[in-house]
Structure formats: structure tokens, C-alpha cells
Amino acid sequence: MEETLVVQNVKKTIGKKEIIKGLSFSLKKGEVFGFLGPNGAGKTTTIRMLVGLIKPTSGKIFVCGYDLQKQFTKAIQHIGCIVENPELYPYLSGWENLEHFARMLPSISTTRIQEVVELVGLQNRIHDLVRTYSLGMRQRLGIAQALLGKPTVLILDEPTNGLDPVGIREMRQFIRTLAEQEQLTVLVSSHLLSEIQLMCDRVAIMSKGEIIRIDTVEHLLKEQARTYWNVHPIHIAKQILKNETTVLGEKDDFIVTVYESNEVIARCNARLIEAGVSVSSIERKLPTLEDLFIELTGGETID
Amino acid sequence: MINLVYNEMLKIVRKKRLFIIAAIVAVLVSLFTYAQFKQVETIRERIGTTDWRTQLQQQIIDTQNRLNSTGISEEWKKFLKIRLQQQQYYLDNDINPMAPGAPTFMRMFIENSIELFLPLLVMVIAADLVSSEASGGTIKLLLTRPVKRWKILMSKYIAMILSTSFIVFSVAVLSYAISGIVFGYGGWNLPLLTGFSIQGEELNTTGVHLIPQWKYLLIEFGLAFFVSLVVGTLTFMLSVLLRSTAAVMGIMLAALISGAILSSMVSSWESAKYLFMVNLRLTSYVSGMAPPIDGMTLSFSMTVLAIWALVALIISFYVFTKRDVY
């Protein structure tokens, strides 16, 4: 698959403090990539470096093969972004805002502006002043603005921040559609685990200026999945299970073991029944990213 | 580039800044016109309406007498001759020097507004050109377009120059149009004295000559435009450096007002002449008023102002293109 955004060992030092300690990753066409980390992990700083607002102290960023430092205009042309809140000119109408940004891009036609307005569903209010928009509408106008130049990579910093539940679901679907149908690469950052879990294909977990893990969401979760056994009496069951699989511990009335294949579970179940243990439920559970995060960062809490 | 400048002008116009400035100018001009009108009226009451011709004739005779008397220097003689020429012109053309027309009002207005009023108006536009984008967060959108940073700043600078031109132009037009209602629109060819220079304590009149008022006005408005550009550029730099528009305005306001105060009290502090704010009264050199500090000339003041503006411009562009935006 084609790589659209490549980041090579990017560092940022401010004063004597190293804020970003060497990031490397690459994004593919048509994928939604999540940046997950607590506030202050360096997500926004990283995103600002990706869009050229902050110069990295060292390292390279390539967008569609163009070096962001050396060929800024060519590279940035392939990026559409919202950094933090979608701040637009409140004293202009939505349409005028889009026209304003269209004038800064090479040859954007009125039809294209119309197109993005319809894409984000703002037709009815587009000629009103942005001052009168709700946060959700501003967010959508921000996305319209980002899509104006037909970017290859869309970078959204906390795209669901401040939206209501319906807005969040809409935004999620919208981002998935863009990636799947328009084949855009979408990079989203969030400190909300549930967000990333539902929206992203791959995720990078950031903590204190470093990426501590990059993997597919599915894989990460599977690795940490557990099997919960609701059995009685527990001490006998534990002895039996120890012979067959790895017991991790007890939680409430459950015995927790690692994730196992169907065959292993069936065999364990047979052994338990042979020994006269009553089995009321066997359940395989995916952990929430929250548990995952705490495990990976060694107890660092989120928010 | 034209597109970028269009964007900047659109933002200035939609913020209604230019409209507000034009309104302020209109109100102030009306106010001053009325004040001037009252003043003329009291003078007229004191010396009578028809008396000004005889009075002027008396002045001419006085000047002639002084010319004929012995013991005055050649230089002074020349000055008196020019003076005589001017008085004769008033009489021949039936102009009351005490009750002048709209162009004279324009001259008076620009001479009094070059130091503080005009710079304040320019400051209102220039102060938030960059800082408002920074405080509003829109700077992030501007700088993530496929446009180089220096071009974005250049478009803003050009917009500042255009707005300054508009301000100076509207001051000229409004002061002419409004005061003309009361004083009449004539008087473009009124001869005025210029070319004074001050040497030490003495007024040097060797270079004095008469020029028509329209030429005089052109020079003064040219100088006013230059001063406005310099103040605009300095404000522009502060606007790049600071996120808060209020801070920009505060600093600029303090500088301008301190300039007005310093001008009247720095005659013994010579190095103060390198401060931009005591050099703003360029029109004084044309009308022959003593500069605040000895040794200040028109070219000196213009050079000082130009250097300040140039340095400000270099700092603005350097900082804007290099800075990390948070």
C-alpha cells in the first residue's frame, strides 16, 4: 500500500527540555490512524510539526514524497488539517470563510466550494455569519475548509471535542467514509479511548513525548484479551486450570486466565465437569483501551 | 499575491475598521470646523467685517517703510520683500487672511494631526493585523496553506499600506468637503511662505520663498503619509511580536503620547532626537517652526523615521517566518 505520510525520527527540544523524543511512523492510503495519549503527551505538538506550524529540532517529515521542510508548499498542499479548535473568522459568513481559504490555494472553483459544503451538510446555513454557528457547525465548516484543496492526508486534532453524542457518531461515520470511499489517509488524535477504538484502523499510543506502541487496534486488544471462568468451587477449579492454561488470578467470583483457543477452552471445560466443578459461564473479554493504556504506560492515568 | 491582499482587505473592511475611522475623521473635522468658525467670527467682531482691507493696506505700508529704512540686513530685506508680495496678493485677490477657505483649513488640520491623531488612526488598523489572527487562532489556518510565510506577511503589510493611504486620503477629502461648507472651497492658489531654516537660536530666512497653497498641501500630505507609514510599520512589528491587540495598542499609544510630551521638554537632552516619536512633526519644518532639539532638520527626521521603519520591517519578517506557532 502507498505510504502518504512518513515521519522519521522527529524530535523537538524547547529550551533544554526534550518535548518529543524521536517519533517514527508512516501512514498508508485509506487508513484511519489514531494518536492516543493523555493531555501533555505531545500529540498536539506532533500534529503542529506535521502541518509545519512548528519546526522539528531534528528528523524528517515527508508528505506524498515531498520533504515538509524543504518543499513546504508542495508538501502542505496534500495536507488538510484542523489544529485544535476550528477557529474561523467569526465576522465572515461560512461561505466567505471558504472563499477566503480557496484564494490561498491554486485554482479552486466555486463548484468545489459548493461540493465540500454539501459533503459536510452545511447548505442551509452557509451564508450566515460564523459568529452565529454552533460548535458542531464550526467543526463541520472546519472540515469543509480542510477538504477544500482535495488533500491526500487529513489531520484532525481532537475532532470530536465538544460535540454532543449525535455529533460524535456523525463525525465518526464521516471520517470512516472519507477513508473508505475517498481513500484519504486520516490522522486523528484523541485522549478518549472509546473514540479511537471505534474509529481507527491503527493506533499509536503516546506518552511523555514517545510512541510506546504502534499496532492495529484489533491486534492490540486481542493480545490483552482474557478468559473469565465462573466456576464453583474455585480452589478445585484453579488446580485443574493451572494444568491446562496460565491462570492470571481471581477477580470476584471469577478465575481469570489468558485468551485461549476454542479447543483449549472446551478441553478445560470437560476436565472441570469430570472433577465435579459446576461451570456457570466461560467468557472471553476484550479489555477496554483504558486498561490497556494503564498496562502499557505502567499506571500512568489518563486525564 | 493579489488574492492574498484581497483577503486581507476583505477582513479589514468586514471588521468595519475603515468605516469607523472615516466616521471618526468626519466627526472631528466637523468639530474643528465649528471651532475655527467661531474663532473667525470673534476676530471679525473685533476688527469689523470690512476693515480687513484697510488693515492689510496699513500692514503693507508698514512693511514698505521698514524696507526703505536704513540699517537692515540684505537678508532681512529679501524676507520683507517676499512678505510684501504675499500681502499684496491677498489684497489684489480680495482674500481675507483671517478668514481663509477650505484648503487653509486642510493645512491647519493636517499640521495639527500629523503627530498624534493620524498615527492613532493608522494604529487602529495596524495593531490587530497579525495579533488578531494569533489570538483568534486563525493564524494556524493561514500558515497551513501552500503559501510561504513571508508572502502571507507581505500581503498583510501591503494591506496596511493601502489602509494608510485610505486614511490619509479620507482625512484630506473629508476636511476639504466639510470645512468648505462653512469657509468656501476656494484658496488653492494662496501664496504661502516656506523655506525657513533654524540655525541655532536664529531664524534663517535665506531660503524663504512663496509657493501656492496646493503645492504646500501636497508636500504636507506627502509628509503626513510618510509619518503614517512609519507609525504603521512600527505598530505592525508589535502586532507580529505580541498576541494581544490591546498590548500592541497600549505600547504604541504610550510611545506616541510620550513623543508629544517629550517634544516640549527635551531641548537639552540631545540624544532624544534619535527617538522616532519626537520626529513625527515633519510639517513644522515646512512652516518654519523651531524643532524640539537643535540640529534637527527635515532630512534628519526623515532618515531617523526611515531607519526605525526599516528595522521594524526586518524584525517583523524575521520573527514571522522563523517562529513556532503554538
Describe the overall structure.
The complex is a heterodimer of chains A (303) and B (326). Chain A has helices at residues 43-50, 72-76, 94-102, 110-119, 135-147, 165-181, 193-199, 217-223, 234-244, 262-274, 289-297; strands at 3-14, 17-28, 32-36, 58-63, 66-67, 79-82, 153-157, 185-190, 202-207, 210-216, 226-232, 247-251, 254-258, 278-285. Chain A is elongated, with a radius of gyration of 24 Å. Chain A has eleven helices and 14 strands. Chain A is an alpha/beta fold and 303 residues long. In chain A, the strands form three sheets. Chain A has a six-stranded mixed beta sheet with strand order 6-7-8-3-9-10, with helices on both faces. The longest helix of chain A is centred in the middle third of the chain and has 17 residues, at 165-181. Chain A has two domains: 3-221, P-loop containing nucleotide triphosphate hydrolases (Rossmann fold, 3-Layer(aba) Sandwich), CATH 3.40.50; 226-285, Alpha-Beta Plaits. Chain B has one domain. The radius of gyration of chain B is 23 Å and the shape is elongated. In chain B, helix 6 (117-136) packs parallel to helix 9. Chain B contains twelve helices and four strands; from the N terminus they run ααααααααββββαααα. Chain B has 326 residues and is mainly α. Classes of the chains: A alpha/beta (303), B mainly alpha (326). The A-B interface holds A 48, 51-55, 72-74, 76-77, 79, 81, 83-85, 87-92, 96, 100-101, 103-106, 145, 149 and B 3-4, 6-7, 10-11, 14-15, 136-138, 140-148, 324-326. Chain B: It holds the Pfam family ABC2_membrane_2. Chain B: This is ABC-2 type transport system permease protein. Chain B: It comes from Anoxybacillus pushchinoensis.
